[in-house]
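Risk register update: the risk of archive-format incompatibility is retired. Evidence:
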Amino acid sequence: MNGKKMPTHIVLIGFMGTGKSTVGQLLAQRLGYAVVDMDAEIERREGRLIRDIFAEEGEGAFRKAESDTLSEILSRSEVQIIATGGGAVLAEQNREAMLSNGFVIALTADTADIIQRVGNDPARPLLQGNAADRVHKLLLERKHAYDFAHLTLNTTGLTAQQVADKIWDSWRSRG
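Archived output:
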């Protein structure tokens, strides 16, 4: 094979609560591609819930499982819509793999919207304690973590369908 291979996957990145899973489902329906929710895939591969991985082995073990899972998913030859976890971008190897193998779209949202969407979700181990404070702190820590994306879309005030439509338009015209 000569030359660099064309990116094949649509990779959705962004902070928790920005709509990655919902938009991924809508894109998959529209495009006829499989959708892979990274968090669900990690839980399937590990045989336990993400919150249990955090509780039993810590964030480091989860991040390793996340990187391993992402690498395997991105190596698949069929086009997929991949909804990553919010922290999948923290490892440089993950960012490089996403860019090499996909069209990367960062979904963002206003802080108040994120807190409203995820603030009471017990399945989010990084938000234990005061969820609003944790969201503010994590957003500050990850302020530029999603800057490498090919496209950034703010989902605030948009329906998931509107976001999916914007991604579809960009995907179609990227040629």
